[in-house]
Amino acid sequence: MNDNLSKPQLLEILKLRRAEWDTLLNSVEEARMDIPGTAGHWSVKDIVSHITAYERWLVEWLTAASQHTFPAPSPLDDADVERRNARVYKVTYALPLYQVMNDAQKIFEALLHIIEVLSDEYFDNPQSAEWFMKPYWSKMKTVPDAVINLSADHYDEHIPSIQKWIEIVSNR
Description:
With about 170 residues, this protein is mainly α. The protein contains 8 helices and no strands.
């Protein structure tokens, strides 16, 4: 759990882990980004879209929290992870690579920004965030924990399959 992270610590972790993620993505030839098989039928591009969808969800959720409201309903509000992921894939698989990569960068920048402007009380006093945490993430008790889980740890979840895929396609 990442319960005791301050806002500056969280931002630093996100920037570091994102730099590692971007380095991995930059090692994939652009022409190969949409080849299926990186993770099941997903391509590297699909994985980027998938992670971006979760980061977008975080941005929407934290933006609403900063305004003391709940976010608008999202397709990701579904408790069934497989159904959520299938929805994201259905909506994003046909997007062009340049759009996926641009969206990923813009959403990550928006995530950093909303964390920077979010009230410090949500970081210093986890009970103050309970009103908007509990309806969405029962396992994650703090803002830093939710952000790390749905962003930085999400990169780590997909890095091994991308690395393995790179190794396989490099040997062809």
